């Protein structure tokens, strides 16, 4: 583990601390080098052997570092990487990195703290007051387009390079920067307000019994209510104020990433002798967790940037859309063409005179080939798309928090989703009880209720059962209850007895605590519960370590056996007749991911009988229970129905058996070496030949329309990965029930691996599988990425679905980075908890669900929705429209610049290659603004297919991921169109003008405006009334402005019929062939969407 963790955000190449403090094998051990590693020639990363142990948590770098870094690399983008690295180095030098250390915190004496710790506040802002302007300018001018225009605008301060008026260059650039800064400022203010709202909330809640339950779903994705225990010695204080009068302190380890462990000590010095108490994860409440009941008084150990939730969250980064990167590459190609054209012009001049100055003048003269209005139009278009998304009545409550990447919604290939609260509602419902010979479903639960009522209505029945189990050796077969005088048939009595035993076991074997809400007169829950034993059903709620257990206990309540009270040593059940039965808890064995089962040993108060109850997954319980021929089959049947199964069993213990077990168990717990192994061995000695009572089936309710939404996304070609912090069995069950994995599809569960040899063998086994879904745990994933990163990602990407369980927040973000690096495809992450923030921020497009789990993911996301099903319309409709519209808008704006640059080139070549502008002053400004801006921008309203069609045929989405709407092919088509139309307009005007040069300007410029308006009409696929208005408005503005353009036009000439017919002829020649080509193409080779529309 690294010695220190820098407080600044983790970057590529920085050392990261392990998320799990599990023991790891040395990579130099013999078992890491088994002889059978040559079964498949997997590529072994030498990086795994050379780097420090913690390096495998960083992003993959080996292959990237092996690339040749020559002049080509420098010119093709290496310069930007070098500049970014230099900026990062400067930032790290300016920002002091504070080493994280262990600390001692004194109770009630903050002045004894030697160091100052971070402010306890959430911060999602990208900038502060001082870094806003330079930060925004850097983000803008790192794009070639803006940097290019800054250089061109600055060149106009040099007299020998000046082409036109300064405002024709600086006004557009200033407008672009102003719009960008206003947009970023609005986003920053919104982030500040959201952070302020979150920071104003404070949780301060503990129980007087020395324990409480907390919810950690915002931290690790698990909605299990975890039991936390208070420090023992502080529970003996007479009053809360005494906490500040004792001389005590807490020593805690340094901040680290691992959310599943904590090491510390509590020391009280004013006692004789001093009291030392060890502290573990059971004593801690992390930030971003919620106290579920009671009140808590605690000592704050970590704050701000040092909390586990913040350490597991990456700092927010500026996201750049793929379309912006593609347009940036196209502008570089245009610049190259501009330089080549300028060199050709100077060469045709013969390199005479100050040719270098003329070269730069030509570069400035052709600068409109790269239009500055491109950024303005695209940014305004993005804002329009965001407004349309938020106004869509079909996805109410959707919020666009990052307005720069709406086109990303139309380019996604991988969707990485959380499980709890995203795909599921995390509300469990009891569905099935199977006793081997008889099965009860939701429609036959009244029969069970009747059996329970009859069972507890006969006082002698319980006595008989108790006596039958209170023997020297465990009873292997349940003894039927003694029949009353009006006896039912023997089979009926047997079923009734089995139902009674099963329901009783379910009501006792759990970790559930009933909670009674505070009364109106201010009584606390414990006071209300203990004062007169008033266990009212009206205000009772249940806390549990698993939502499955809550569902089971609620079910036993519904059939008549109610859990009414529980503390650390006992629990009480209320029978249908109102009698309260007390059971003492002797031992409890909590559920772990390794054991896959939990157990409890209880003693009944009235009879003194000791019973060991156990429940767990079928794979763990099959070898524990007595032989049977139905368990495996029925578990499979329930799993196919999407139910989560638990096997329930019991074993009666004599007093001697329990005493012997207790002695061995306590001795094992005191062992210094291999304590966990010895403890589990003692417990397993009890887990033999247990009586199988029943099999239960619980359903986790899915979010609304999850199944059709996932099917829609799959048909759209989007690969779905589920990343969850939950258990493997739960994740697998939800993957099946949500149809993330189809019923006909095989599932390959990647077995647990701990070293290179095991990982190699398991990867070989996985490679032999075809078209199967992959289920893998976070620990196994960690090992695979350490040694076989490239191979694992390559195999996983071929799977139709991937489920990663027991993932830490950092691992989720790491998986996103791996997909982005290895596949070069666009990724989207969706989640609803604080543990999903890193994943959301790492993805190209982050979507947060605002629900009952909180707002942290929603606030950190680029897009916020209220239900998972809304993602279908968000991607299929708005993603499609945003990408298609921006692609058309960007290319048309470039066409608008290329056509006027072509006219300038023709003009200069005819007039002796003079570097003189064709159009000056207001004509150039008006051309890119009021004369053509509204029709061109109206393309943001265009759509190729109706929303209903896009949702009905999600296969149309696949074409978007190929990027065919904006590619070098489409760009070259627009270049050819621009050259053709520019040449026709300029040569036509030169051929048809009569005597004065001003006539050439009037004819060509008017024909140019009309051509642009007609080209907009040519590219529109679905007309909107605002498009028609924009066309006529622009034409009206141009005609009205002719009266004021006497400086550029001959007003007498433009009112003659000769002017009108010449302009009309040139316009028709420039546009008519394109209309004909479009008609023929749509007739003989129509696009896929037009076939569906027809």
Automatic annotation (TrEMBL):
PROSITE patterns: ATPASE_E1_E2. The active site is at residue 418. Residues 458-489 have a biased composition (Low complexity). It comes from the Eukaryota. Belongs to the cation transport ATPase (P-type) (TC 3.A.3) family. Type IV subfamily. One of its GO terms (biological process) is endocytosis. It is found in: Golgi apparatus, trans-Golgi network membrane; Membrane. It comes from Oncorhynchus tshawytscha. Mg(2+) binds at residues 418, 420, 832, 836. Pfam families: Hydrolase, PhoLip_ATPase_C, PhoLip_ATPase_N. The chain crosses the membrane at residues 167-186, 333-353, 359-378, 893-913, 919-941, 971-991, 997-1018, 1025-1046, 1058-1077. It catalyses: ATP + H2O + phospholipidSide 1 = ADP + phosphate + phospholipidSide 2. ATP binds at residues 418-420, 549, 591, 615, 644, 724-726, 806, 812, 835-836. GO terms for molecular function: ATP binding; ATP hydrolysis activity; ATPase-coupled intramembrane lipid transporter activity; magnesium ion binding. Residues 111-170 form the P-type ATPase N-terminal domain. The gene is ATP9B. This is Phospholipid-transporting ATPase. InterPro entries: ATPase_P-typ_cyto_dom_N (IPR023299), ATPase_P-typ_P_site (IPR018303), ATPase_P-typ_TM_dom_sf (IPR023298), ATPase_P-typ_transduc_dom_A_sf (IPR008250), HAD-like_sf (IPR036412), HAD_sf (IPR023214), P-type_ATPase_IV (IPR006539), P-type_ATPase_N (IPR032631). Residues 859-1086 form the P-type ATPase C-terminal domain. GO terms for cellular component: endosome; plasma membrane; trans-Golgi network.
């Amino acid at each position: 583990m690294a010695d220190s963790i820098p407080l600044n955000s983790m970057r590529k190449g920085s050392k990261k601390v392990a998320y799990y403090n599990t023991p790891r094998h040395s990579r130099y051990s013999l078992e890491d080098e088994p002889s059978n590693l040559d079964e498949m020639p997997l590529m072994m990363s030498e990086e795994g052997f050379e780097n420090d142990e913690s390096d495998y948590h960083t992003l993959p770098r080996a292959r990237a570092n092996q690339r040749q870094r020559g002049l080509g690399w420098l010119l093709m983008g290496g310069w930007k990487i070098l500049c970014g690295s230099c900026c990062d180095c400067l930032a790290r030098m300016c920002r002091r990195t504070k080493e994280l250390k262990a600390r001692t915190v004194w109770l009630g004496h903050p002045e004894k703290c030697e160091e100052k710790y971070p402010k306890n506040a959430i911060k999602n802002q990208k900038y502060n007051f001082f870094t806003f302007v330079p930060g925004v300018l850097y983000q803008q001018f790192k794009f070639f387009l803006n940097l290019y225009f800054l250089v061109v605008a600055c060149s106009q301060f040099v007299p020998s390079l000046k082409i036109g008026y300064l405002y024709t260059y600086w006004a557009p650039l200033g407008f672009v920067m102003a719009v960008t800064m206003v947009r970023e400022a609005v986003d920053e203010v919104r982030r500040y307000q959201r952070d302020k709202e979150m920071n104003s909330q404070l949780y301060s809640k503990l129980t007087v019994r020395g324990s409480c339950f907390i919810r950690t779903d915002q931290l690790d994705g698990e909605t299990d209510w975890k039991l936390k225990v208070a420090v023992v010695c502080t529970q003996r204080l007479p009053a809360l104020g005494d906490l500040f009068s004792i001389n005590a302190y807490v020593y805690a380890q340094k901040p680290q990433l691992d959310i599943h462990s904590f090491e510390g000590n509590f020391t009280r010095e004013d006692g004789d002798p001093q009291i030392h108490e060890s502290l573990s994860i059971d004593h801690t409440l992390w930030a971003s967790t919620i106290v579920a009941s009671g009140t808590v008084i605690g000592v704050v150990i970590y704050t701000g940037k040092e909390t586990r939730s913040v350490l597991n969250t990456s700092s927010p980064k500026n996201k750049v859309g793929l379309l912006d990167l593609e347009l940036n590459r196209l502008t570089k190609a245009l610049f190259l063409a501009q330089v080549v054209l300028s060199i050709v012009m100077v060469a045709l001049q013969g390199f005479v005179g100050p040719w270098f100055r003329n070269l730069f003048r030509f570069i400035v003269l052709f600068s409109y080939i790269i239009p500055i209005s491109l950024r303005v139009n695209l940014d305004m278009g993005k804002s329009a798309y965001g407004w349309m998304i938020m106004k869509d009545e079909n996805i109410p409550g959707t919020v666009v928090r990052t307005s720069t990447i709406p086109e990303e919604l139309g380019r996604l290939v991988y969707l990485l989703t959380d499980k709890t609260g995203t795909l599921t509602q995390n509300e469990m419902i009891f569905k099935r009880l199977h006793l081997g010979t008889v099965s009860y479903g939701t429609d036959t639960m009244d029969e069970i209720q009747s059996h329970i009522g009859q069972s507890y209505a006969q006082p002698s029945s319980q006595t008989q059962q108790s006596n039958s189990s209170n023997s020297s050796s465990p009873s292997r077969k349940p003894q039927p209850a003694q029949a009353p005088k009006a006896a039912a048939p023997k089979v009926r009595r047997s079923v009734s007895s089995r139902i009674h035993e099963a329901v009783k076991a379910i009501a006792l074997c759990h970790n559930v605590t009933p909670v009674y809400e505070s009364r109106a007169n201010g009584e606390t829950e414990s006071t209300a519960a203990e004062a007169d034993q008033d266990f009212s059903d009206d205000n009772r709620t249940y806390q549990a370590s698993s939502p499955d257990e809550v569902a089971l206990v609620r079910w036993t309540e519904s059939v008549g056996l109610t859990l009414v009270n529980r503390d650390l040593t006992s629990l009480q059940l209320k029978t249908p007749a109102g009698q309260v039965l007390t059971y003492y808890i002797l031992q409890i064995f909590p559920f772990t991911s390794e054991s896959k089962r939990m157990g409890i040993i209880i003693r009944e108060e009235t009879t003194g009988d000791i019973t060991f109850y156990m429940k767990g997954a079928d794979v763990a319980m099959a070898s524990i229970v007595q032989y049977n021929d139905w368990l495996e089959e029925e578990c499979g049947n329930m799993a196919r129905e999407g139910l989560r199964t638990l096997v329930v069993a019991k074993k009666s213990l004599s007093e001697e058996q329990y005493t012997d077990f207790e002695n061995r168990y306590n001795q094992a717990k005191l062992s210094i070496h291999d304590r966990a192994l010895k403890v589990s061995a003692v417990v397993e000695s009890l887990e033999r030949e247990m009586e199988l009572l029943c099999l239960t089936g619980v359903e986790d309710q899915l979010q609304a329309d999850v199944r059709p939404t996932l099917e829609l996304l799959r048909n759209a070609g989007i690969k779905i990965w589920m990343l969850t912090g939950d258990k493997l069995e739960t994740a697998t069950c939800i993957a099946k029930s949500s149809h993330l994995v189809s019923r006909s599809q095989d599932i390959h569960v990647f077995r647990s691996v701990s070293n290179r040899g095991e990982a190699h063998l398991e990867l070989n086994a996985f490679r032999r599988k075809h078209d199967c879904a992959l289920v893998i745990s976070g620990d196994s994933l960690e090992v695979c990425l350490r040694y076989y990163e490239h191979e694992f990602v390559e195999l996983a990407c071929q799977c139709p679905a991937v489920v990663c369980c027991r993932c830490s927040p950092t691992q989720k973000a790491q998986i996103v980075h791996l997909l982005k690096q290895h596949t070069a495809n666009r990724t989207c992450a969706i989640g609803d908890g604080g543990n999903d923030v890193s994943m959301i921020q790492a993805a190209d497009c982050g979507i947060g669900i605002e629900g009952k789990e909180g707002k942290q993911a929603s606030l950190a996301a680029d897009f916020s929705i209220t239900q998972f099903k809304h993602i279908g319309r968000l991607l299929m409709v708005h993603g499609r429209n945003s990408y298609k519209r921006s692609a058309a808008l960007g290319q048309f704006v470039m066409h608008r610049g290329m056509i006027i640059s072509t006219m300038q080139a023709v003009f200069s070549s005819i007039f002796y290659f003079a570097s003189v502008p064709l159009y000056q002053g207001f004509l150039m400004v008006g051309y890119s603004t009021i004369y053509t801006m509204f029709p061109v921008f109206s393309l943001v309203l265009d759509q190729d297919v109706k929303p209903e069609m896009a949702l009905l045929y999600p296969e149309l989405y696949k074409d978007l991921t190929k990027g065919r709407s904006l590619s070098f092919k489409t760009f070259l088509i627009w270049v050819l169109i621009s050259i053709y139309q520019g040449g026709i307009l300029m040569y036509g005007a030169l051929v048809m003008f009569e005597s004065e040069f001003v006539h050439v300007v009037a004819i060509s410029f008017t024909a140019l405006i009309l051509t642009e308006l007609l080209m907009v009409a040519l590219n529109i696929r679905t007309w909107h009334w605002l498009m028609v208005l924009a066309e006529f408005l622009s034409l009206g503005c141009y005609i009205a402005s002719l009266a004021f353009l006497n400086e550029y036009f001959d007003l007498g000439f433009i009112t003659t019929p000769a002017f009108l017919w010449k302009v009309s002829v040139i316009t028709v020649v420039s546009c008519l062939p394109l209309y004909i080509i479009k008609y023929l193409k749509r007739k003989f080779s129509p696009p896929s969407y037009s076939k569906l529309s027809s």
